[in-house]
Amino acid sequence: AASEAVREPRSCAYARSAAAMPPSPSEQRRRRSAPRLLLGLAPALLCAALHPKLSGLFASVDRAPRETFCSLRSPCSSAQLRSAGPCGKTSHSPLERVLYLTPRCHARCRGGIGASAAALAGAQRRAESPLHLAAKPLADLEVVIVGAGPSGLLLAHKLLDAGARVELLESRADPRNLDGGEGRAYALGLGIRGRSAIRTVDDALWEAIKPSGFGSERFQLHPTPTLKIELRSPDDGKGLEPSLLIYQSDLCGALLTELEARHAAGGRLKIAFKVRVESVDARTGIVVVQDAGGGGRRELAPAGLVAGCDGVNSIVRDAVQKACEGFSVTKEPLPGNLKVIRFAKMPEALDFDAVHAIPGSGGNSIFLEPTARGVCALITWRDAAPAAAGGAEAKEGEAAPVSLGDLTDAEAVRDALAKAFPLVADVVDLDAGQQFLSQKTTRAATIRCNTYHSARAVLLGDAAHSSGGASGQGCNAALMDAVALVDCLVEGANEGVDVALLAYSQRRVPEGHALLDLSLGPSDEVGAFKKALFGLSTLVGNVLSRFGLGTPPIQTLATTTLTPFAEMRRDREFFFGEFPTEAEFKKEVAVLAAASK
């Protein structure tokens, strides 16, 4: 039924016939060489999978951002979509416009590693929804959005396009007025899910965002200062749009500028920065805020919907917990600490247009991402444990090991970073040391909720599901939340907000749970043997995928297709354990919704 919901373009038959043609001699040689290469590497791969340090190293390979929506090399450009594509058609279906697929890409993706039939059917519904027909089905809805991050801003775009009235509240300053992006200083990677979500508004919005980012399709791992492993190269994605690396402040600034340009004059948009939300009543829709600078405490008019896009420490989630009997949230801190600094340029020893992962000495690591404004460096470390607690003892004549977080002098930070990461020593100066000291230490945490709504309150992004940055899919998933929420509101416009929010939770809770599982890997409950097998399968998948063979690794599927996370998780039950069915998730969410009425 899902496949019938997607009407196949006539030229798909040509794509299938082309795919069925005998492979060329060079392709035949390549296919024959892959099994031989794998057989020769088998002992090394097995040792790597069974060794804890190496298996963790190769598991991180899966987290590389990647954007190759399907294996074909000729996707439609925006100009082709507006005129004639490679297939010769001068018009494209709404589905093709939303997903940016040529008919050939469409045919291959339906049968290959691209979007599943269910995902394509969902995109078809979005493309043909009243939003794309200039209707205003949400004209009677007033929404308060708590949090003006990427998901909150995209949600505002889509709600306003559907006719709703929106009040946007943000505790931080306007990102466009910040030098360095205070509180938003890290870079994000926008893959196919994030871009598809943004393009459901229109292509012009995506084109407005692109200049603020840096496109990169290269990823390199540096296990030692002299060893470089090319995990991904431009040859892997010829003709395809690369991942967009962009500071969160720049992404929010671009979304905000477009939001004001499109809707500020319409009288249906209010935006307030430096406003702290004190409380939310999920049943009445009343939000109490404290204005900046002690401007006073005030109560907003009751809203028909309060959307919590306010992150891991969500105030709206607290309101959902009070209103919903049986609501459960699990918050688990991840080990280690994180700070972000900016370099003006990429270190000389590293390729300027690649993403670099560099394990350092003492359990430290650094992750470098090129952006449109210099290089974003994410530095992680673990606190030094005392010797009595199992920490390393200092050798005679040597100073005791000191954690990066214990340093208080910019010169000491500079020297420590240069020593831990020799490859970046030429760009680590006193300014980098001062940046490190001036930032608050971040400790990531995961969030898992058993429902994403109650009464008039709803959760999106990290407020509902957080993988703590382990997957690289947090922002992409949050943007998809915004699309799914407005889809449900539009589809249920005649049935009430409660029906729409129930549909949203039933649709997104499985995705949030699955993403967290896929991000963290198999738990200890499945046993060491299956965890080792999973590490080996991940490594083998990365090797074979370079030859176009085998099942792509999890991160490749996550960043290059619209395959639901829940589907990916169920396909790996052998490694991860059982995962509830769609019907079981729907039943649990429905029971919680009924209990909270």
Task: Tell me briefly what this model is.
This protein is α+β, with helices and mostly antiparallel strands. A six-stranded mixed β-sheet has the order 8-2-1-12-20-19, with helices on both faces. Strands 6-5-15-16-17-14 form a six-stranded mixed β-sheet. Strands 3-7-4 form a three-stranded antiparallel β-sheet.
User: In this structure, how is the largest beta sheet organized?
Assistant: 6 strands, mixed
Summed over residues and divided by their number, the pLDDT gives a mean of: 78
Gap from first CA to last CA: 34 Å
Topology, number of strands: 21
How would you classify the helix and strand content by structural class? alpha+beta
What does the overall shape look like? Answer: globular
Low-confidence stretches: 1-21, 33-133, 387-392
The strand line-up of the biggest sheet is 8-2-1-12-20-19
Overall helicity: 25-40%
Note the beta-strand portion. Answer: 15-25%
Radius of gyration: 24 Å
The count of helical stretches stands at: 21
Overview of the molecule:
The longest helix has 26 residues, at 25-50. The chain is of the alpha+beta class. Helix 3 packs across helix 17 (528-545) and helix 8 (150-161) packs parallel to helix 11 (248-263). 40% of the residues lie in helices and 17% in strands. Mean pLDDT is 78; it is low at 1-21, 33-133 and 387-392. Strand 15 (355-359) and strand 16 form a beta hairpin. Strands 8-2-1-12-20-19 form a 6-stranded mixed β-sheet, with helices on both faces. It has a 6-stranded mixed β-sheet with strand order 6-5-15-16-17-14. Strands 3-7-4 form a 3-stranded antiparallel β-sheet. It is built from 21 helices and 21 strands. The two termini are 34 Å apart.
